[in-house]
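Quick look at the format.
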Amino acid sequence: MKTKISVIVLLLGEFMLELTDLAGRMMKLNTFNTYNYMLSQFFGLIVLTVIYGNYYIQLSRELKWMIYGYAILTLITNVLYVQNDMQVTFYSNIITSIIICSYAASYFMKIIREGRTDRNMFVVNIIVFLFFSIECLISTTYNFLISNHLNWVAPIWLFRGILLLSFYIAFINLGCGVGKIRIR
């Protein structure tokens, strides 16, 4: 049950952030979306650290606290860095994406060592690795992607959207599948 709660918190939190992002865009509050992105980056790193610690890999207490400290420091830095609500760069998201990709890579190394895996957890890790590796690449060109013509950048955003949808579906599937009674 403890592990299901972390997945539910991730899904509900991200759902709320997506809804507030949609509402901000509909009301043309672009500065609101900037802060929403910062919160999403912070929230995703914290909750995915908890999920990976519960489901997949053993993270030492010191490592968890270092990651939590980094997440808080990054949030504060990003909030203070936004100048006149216009200057937007989230290069810190590159490091966040690399940390999350390293969680998935650690799980793959665990699979190689042990030689066995759960299908649902394997699918979630593939999706997490794909999404956050693409997110890392997108973060390096974020200013280009938000300031250029849609004809140029739409395929990249569309591919990211498909991976994000797959990310949510994989975690919904994982949340529903954890703790099931399996009759053998």
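Next, a different chain entirely:
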Amino acid sequence: MSATKCFYLTLILICFSSHSFASLEDDFQTAVYLIKQQQYSDAIEVLNDVRKRGMKKPALYHNLAICHYKLDQYEQAEKFFVKLRNFPNERMQAEFNLGLLALKQNQPERARKQFSYVKNNANNKKLVTLARIQLGELKQVPVEKSKQWFAYLSTAFGNDSNVIADPDNGAIINAGSHYFSIYADGELILVGDEDNGVSFFASTSSTDYSDFPVYDYAQTSFGLQGTFQAGSWDNLIRYRSLQSTLGSIDYQKTSHIELSTSAYLNSDFRFRLRYRHYDITSLNPAYSYLSGTRQRIRAEIKYKAQSNYAKLYYELETNDRVNSATSNYSPTRHSFRAFYKHVITEDLSIRGDYSYRFSIYEAGNVSPARDDERSRYGLRLTYRFDKNWKIRAKYEHTSNESTLPASYSYERDVTSLELIASF
């Protein structure tokens, strides 16, 4: 099957999943309305119906548990809180709710065990604080409202043993340099929330080389994204516009559209399918050969347990660039990547990363055919020293082997120390 057909098939599958689950989602929202009206028995009836018809998302089990809890039907409430344990992102909240349920059932020892478990194992500091309050270790504090904005900032100082002159085509200069980089992004939810809503986002980044300022790289972007749930699938539609500079001159303007959908396969594994289409315009005539389009489709599996997190994906990339008279800049690429993160303590984690990319450049009128194999591995150690601040040490090694070794084979080592803030 051609890459183009794969892309269209992906779009059809995403649209089909949205259509198939539309009536389920409508009925689910009806149940949410009934809960707000405190009509818990009616809400349970609707929720049980959509559950039998295939909905399995965490919000379904949470609402069923709450309805039974409000009706003092503690045995049924416990059954659905226990089901929430199967969703990694919901597990600690479920454990905390089971503690509250034990208090309602006059089981103080069981409640103490639940709250102690949450205190010792949850990564969410707000949940840890609530557990400590229930254990009598802290006084009651006001509950914070759900955030409508998010921000992230990082600065890094490091050394690059082999500066990549052109970020898009991978041309190299076979020389190293110290560098300083900064990255910032933010998101503002305009309507709804993280799971079902519309938000605006923007980012800016720059990398400045001490020895080769002509290869400094900077990029700014902004866009809109919408998220919605369809049955057990979480879906996203995103538009982003980017503009970059290389050295002190304009480099490229890019716009891309992203579609993705994801769902839990079981309690620990989550599957995601993502498609991106890029329209690329060169802002400098010297790089006009890079203008054109790029498409990427990715299938990935994520694993998340209490102290371990892993991700594995395969990505297909196709390019249709202008190309130059002597070189082809429209590769077809196959990429594989895997990383594993282990949480050593609540504030300290280590992560290993490995990727492999195979690129095929077809022969042109003058340009020869070319194949590249790039392998990359890295290690990073992250320490959180404050609620909002982290420090990170990183090392990354890249090796590229090409059938045209004189121009495209290289080795590269990058080390850095990074300060990160998130709000």
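Residues 3-20 form the longest helix (18 residues).

See the schema section for token definitions.
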